[in-house]
Amino acid sequence: MNDPVNSNFENRGPAMANMNISMSPKSLGHLVPWAVAIAFFFLFPERLGQWTEILIWVLFTISMDLALGYAGIVTLGHAAFFGIGAYTAGLMSIHVTGDPIIGMVAATVLAGIAGLITGMLILHTTGVTLLMLTLAIAAMLENWANRATKITGGDDGLQGMELGNLFGIFEFNFFGVTAFWYALGVLFIWFLIAYRIVRSPFGRSIDGIRQNANRMRAIGTPVWWRLVVMYGVSAAMAGSAGALTSYKTEFVGLTVLQLLTSGIVAVMLILGGQKTIYGAFFGAAIYIMVRDTAAETYPFLSEAIIGIMLILVVLFLEDGVMSVPKILRRRPKKAAE
Questions:
Q1: Whole-structure pTM over 0.90, yes or no?
Q2: pLDDT at 333 (0 to 100)
């Protein structure tokens, strides 16, 4: 007589095996960006500053993706929160404590609060009006930072930062080893948070709001509040990126608040692809590596090269670099048809 329990497992065995096989490549794919970052640390230690900068901009780009890609909040003033984080971390290290963790927490919280407050003020609007309001907020902050020379240093920038050792052990020095691992650790924590948010019921409702806000209101979704919360989370993440850049350079200049900074992170998001999170890794890495290589080889044409690259991506890769696998999968299907 057949054992029903054993026969049941025998029937389910191939299915379970196939499921595990199909899940393995996807699970391994999540490890690739982190493995590459760690490998670059050991393979190219002489370019540690560049890798750290890439990690910081990846974090900033993910924050932009949460606001623009997932929530559909059109903004050109995301540098405001990046700058708030940078100045907060810098001022904390000068006047309060050089502990990089306390400074990071303060920068993240203050930027998040700024995002919530400004979000409540501007997210009643949409389209061009919203775009101009985000731009105006960043411009006002930049103007204030320029005039408040006793606090921010104005045109000369915020100088004299004194950083303590990370966890009381690891020193922030000229070689940038601690800055790299600290940036990687902060990025990893925020990545897990972002990944969880966009796949949660809250994140799916945000996606629904982006697609059709009126329909979401009709089913009772608090559209405005959810957008404000998402904007606040995005701002807090941008503030963390700003704090990291101040720790990396031990200097904060007005550039952290400028329109150019918001434009650069938007370009990185377009290059990598929106609504993917992983697109931020590709977008930031491609932009910075092309920028630095072009500046070394053709210093007077570097901006033109970046512009041409962006045009080509927009024309041929509608969803950025992350759309390449989709395009490659479509070609065999078209050939078969």
A1: no
A2: 58
